UniProtKB/TrEMBL annotation:
One of its GO terms (biological process) is intracellular signal transduction. This is non-specific serine/threonine protein kinase. The keyword NADP does not apply. GO terms for molecular function: ATP binding; protein serine/threonine kinase activity. Pfam families: Pkinase. Its EC number is 2.7.11.1. Keywords: ATP-binding, Kinase, Nucleotide-binding, Serine/threonine-protein kinase, Transferase. The lineage of its organism: Eukaryota, Metazoa, Chordata, Craniata, Vertebrata.
Length: 106
């Protein structure tokens, strides 16, 4: 999504409320929102705001060019060793940051 005035890009996660209820994941969605709002770390995506419509919970987050690691691996296959080391180190730093606040990533 883009901000109309500034044209800045954001990622928006749109979650169907009915699916959350059926899967008993309502609390999990709110915990995710709270963590993303709280986190201030270059290796953890920031959330700017959240809102809901009649059918969806929406979270507006920092847009990360290139997508996630799973998409990257699907498109290019195995990473060169140095790039894999870099991504691994960044992941460790993100997890360390979260763990310091008692947050566990599954």
């Amino acid at each position: 999504v883009r901000h109309r005035a500034t044209r800045q890009r954001f990622a928006m996660k749109k979650i169907n409320k009915q699916n959350l209820l059926l899967r008993n994941q309502v609390q999990q969605a709110f915990v995710e929102r709270d963590i993303l709002t709280f986190a201030e770390n270059p290796f953890v995506v920031s959330m700017f705001c959240s809102f809901q419509t009649r059918r969806h919970l929406c979270m507006v987050m920092e847009y990360v060019e290139g997508g996630d690691c799973a998409t990257l691996l699907k498109h290019i296959g195995a990473l060169p060793l140095e790039l894999a080391r870099l991504y691994f180190a960044e992941t460790v730093l993100a997890l360390e940051y979260l763990h310091n606040y008692g947050i566990v990533h599954r």
